[in-house]
Each structure stands twice: as structure tokens, then as C-alpha cells.
Design goal:
single chain, mainly beta, seven-stranded mixed β-sheet, four-stranded antiparallel β-sheet
Length: about 120
Amino acid sequence: QVQLVESGGGLVQAGGSLRLSCAASGSIFRINHMGWSRQPPGKQRELVAAITSGGSTNYADSVKGRFTISRDNAKNTVYLQMNSLKPEDTAAYYCNAKITTTGLRLDDYWGQGTQVTVSS
């Protein structure tokens, strides 16, 4: 069993910053793709940022220049630094990881979500 535990969400004023963290634990053999998605109320979940095991990154156009994704392989942790936050960034944020377990199964895992609310 693998768990992703998120932290760092909260309430922040427009223009402020937050740093989200997501640590993976459990029967992990290898972590491949890691990323962050978000789901505003009443809308579909959308990819925000992704990072490969080699460090290549991709961002949604809406967050380019404001958000930065990074990972600490030694800690099995992915981060999302969010700067210049806007009210439209308000959403439940979910971390995701494609993980090969010690049983050599490749599966997609999701955190339970952390709420980010940006006030105007």
C-alpha cells in the first residue's frame, strides 16, 4: 500500500504565496511521474504541473511563471511553490504519482487533497 500525504494548503490573500508538499510513503520501489492537479468547485480536475523522474517539468498555461514544481527524490516528496496567487487559483489541490511498488505493480496514486483558497 502507498499513501500520498499533502500539506501546505490554506487561506491566502491575492498576490500571496503558498508551498504545497506531498510525501509518498509505503511499499515504494520507484517513483516515476509526479504532479499536481486541482479541482475548483463544480469543475473537472485539471493538471497544474508535472515533473518526471529526470526533472523535466510541464505547467498549465494558467500557472506558468507563477508556480514551480520540484521534487526531492531522497524524501519521496513533490512540492508546488505557488506565487502571485489569484482568486481563480482557489481549488482543491491533489498530488499524483505513478509508482512502482515493491510488488512490481505500476499504479497511479492520488493524495486526498488540500484546499487552497485565495481571497480578493
